[in-house]
Structure prediction request, 489 residues.
Amino acid sequence: MDRTLRYDPSAARQRLEPELWERVEPQLLAARQDVIADVVLWNSGGPVPESKQPLDAGFIELPMRLLDDCRQRGPLSLAGRIETVAARLREAVDRFVVLGIGGSYMGARALFEALCHRYHNELPRDRRSGVPRVYFEGNNLDNDTLSDLLALLADSDRRTDFQSVRPGDDAAAGRTGSPSCGVEDRWAMAVISKSGGTLETAAAFRLLRRALEAECGPDSDEVRQRIVPVTGETGRLRDLAVARGYSDVFPIPDGVGGRFSVLTAVGLLPAAVMGLDVVALLQGAADMTERFANDPFGDNPVLDYVAVCHLFEKHHGMKIRLFSTWGARLEALGLWYDQLLSESLGKQERGATPITVVNTRDLHSRGQQHQEGRRDKLITNVFVQSPSRAPLALPAFDSDEDRLNQHAGKTLPQFLSAAFEGTNRAYAADRRPTADIVLPKLDEYALGQLFQMLMLATVVEGRLIGVNPYGQPGVEAYKRNMTEILSQA
Ligand code: PA5
Prediction:
């Protein structure tokens, strides 16, 4: 089976003047050169011109490097060490909390929703092949959701009100190293923050750390093994990890920005704990980088995608990009892309607005507007050709009150394909442009390709329109104000 991601812009191109397509080719080839030159500059370690700062081109070659490292050093490589720690955690605990926000969380969530069992956390441990239940926190300042998680993690029999417990309390001491505590009662967490200073993540980490320390003893080896920081080379979290002596700390390399970091330990560690194939993810990304660097315009998913998005935005006023996913498992991937596009190109009063759509669900909510609303939307479908589970066929019933016997024997994938084709036909009839990203199957290799395609496309588009895709200066404003307000409180 061919596992290659396909980008098919043919329907959109019918709505596009051919000369625009021809004119944009040299610009895109120049933008590709620019992006490749950024990699060379980054690798040289030489000074980065002011106009290019910040420059976080490290994500582009990273998958190849990690794969080489893995081939050469096996268990000592980064991927190997991640797998070792993940295997240890899978064996030791039944709940795994991923703390992080923005680029330090959205990729892991996308992987979880796309590739794990839909009801993973509800399954008994043996049906999860020993993979812990997975929770995401530290991505908000929501008192109630964090309280609920703390309550869930507490052993309901013996650890009822630990929010009020301080290390050293009798109650805490009584619980320390409880011999009756089995794997089903134990939990661990990855705290992921490149800067190490993001309040949402840091505050959640404090609260959860206090709970874990109260359970296991503040200075215990158990705590040191159950907290795995993933952080930048310097910063508060790095300092804390060293001071507390956590046994495993994974780096987020300099030169890889938060929203471009899904294929560093930021995404790979949670993926490995989820039991996913980290090497296949990296291979998908590495193969996409090869295609980007070598394939001609017109047959290059990255360049062709940017061409369609850019031309419809510039010449047809389509400033809204619908990332229209088919099936329920790609919503979090869409939200990951929302962040990537918004934070990378939403600068200098420019940049398209991304919206994630989940079909067929949203045909019953947003569909009306997409079909007949303003002509300011470019639709990119993301369609998975084969389901991961055996197709469900509609049964025939003796009594046919719901009149569905006419479709008996047809499968849900057939229904979904019909909805997909029917929707696109309706858009085409009204001259609304669509393009398709087609994944043969939803697996690690496909997602590796897709992550890398969209990251590369974002950077190419930035270079094309003269917006630095790296850095997010606008995010700093709220943080500054919040810190000032808190210091006065
Ligand atoms: O893309 C980015 O850089 C941001 O979205 C960050 O990932 C986000 O703000 C979290 O930052 P940090 O990892 O430093 O906690």
